[in-house]
Amino acid sequence: MNPPPPTTLARPAVNLSAIIVGPLELGWLEPTGRVPDVLRAWERGALGEVPAGLAWDVVRVPTGTAHATVRRLRAARVPLGPVLATPLGVDFLLAPGSADGWDAPESFRLPDRTLVPLPHPDYAEPRHLGGRSWIVRPTTGALTDGPALRDAYALARVVAEAAR
User: Fold this and answer.
1) Gap between the Cα atoms of 3 and 48, Å rounded
2) Residue 21 pLDDT > 80, yes or no?
3) Residue 15 domain-assigned (yes or no)
4) CB 3.0-4.6 Å disulfide test: which of 15, 27, 41, 48 passes with 141?
5) How far apart are CA 87 and CA 150, in angstroms?
């Protein structure tokens, strides 16, 4: 007699967030409305896609100034949200609307609805997935404020240029 085929479920019978991300904060991700899709992607070892401009704005700066910018934000003791290294630069997740009118050299605000591929929060430097890695992991609900990023980034650029 053959054993019965394994049962497959169309929908998971458990809350994937408790299994996949454990104690990690999902508050930064929940307003996107994409938590189930992102968790399923992470469960498969893939990047989860979330559109920019819904729960947070995204500003991309050059890789060369990103770490100095993060250091300056930390030194200023301002809320620091997730920061993601990508093949095209470094993305800062900002409070919604705080990057409106962004105008800083060699950087730009991603247009609303641009899909941002996100690795699981465990992919922090130097571990990468699809060329992406968290410099600042999304472990709290904090988001960086646009003006604070602009100030820290501007200072990091001045220091980098003076060192050349």
Assistant:
1) 36
2) no
3) no
4) 27
5) 22
Across 83-92, average pLDDT: 97
Residue 48 to residue 120: CA distance in whole angstroms: 8
Residues with Cβ < 8 Å from 114, sequence gap 6 or more?
Answer: 51, 52, 53, 58
CB atoms within 10 A of CB 28: 21
- CB neighbours of residue 51 within 10 Å: 17
Residue whose tokens read 């989860």? 48
DSSP β-bridge partners for residue 129: 132
Look at residue 71 and tell me if it is in a domain.
Answer: yes
Q: What does the DSSP 8-state code read for residue 141?
A: S
Range of the domain at 57: 23-163
Return the residue matching tokens 């220091």.
159
Q: What is the pTM of this model?
A: 0.85
Q: Please compute the mean of the pLDDT values over residues 71-93 and round it to a whole number.
A: 97
Who wins on pLDDT, 113 or 4? Answer: 113
Half-sphere exposure of 158 (CA within 13 A, CB side): 7
The answer to whether residue 9 is domain-embedded is no
Check whether 112 has a pLDDT greater than 50.
Answer: yes
Q: How many domains does the chain have?
A: 1
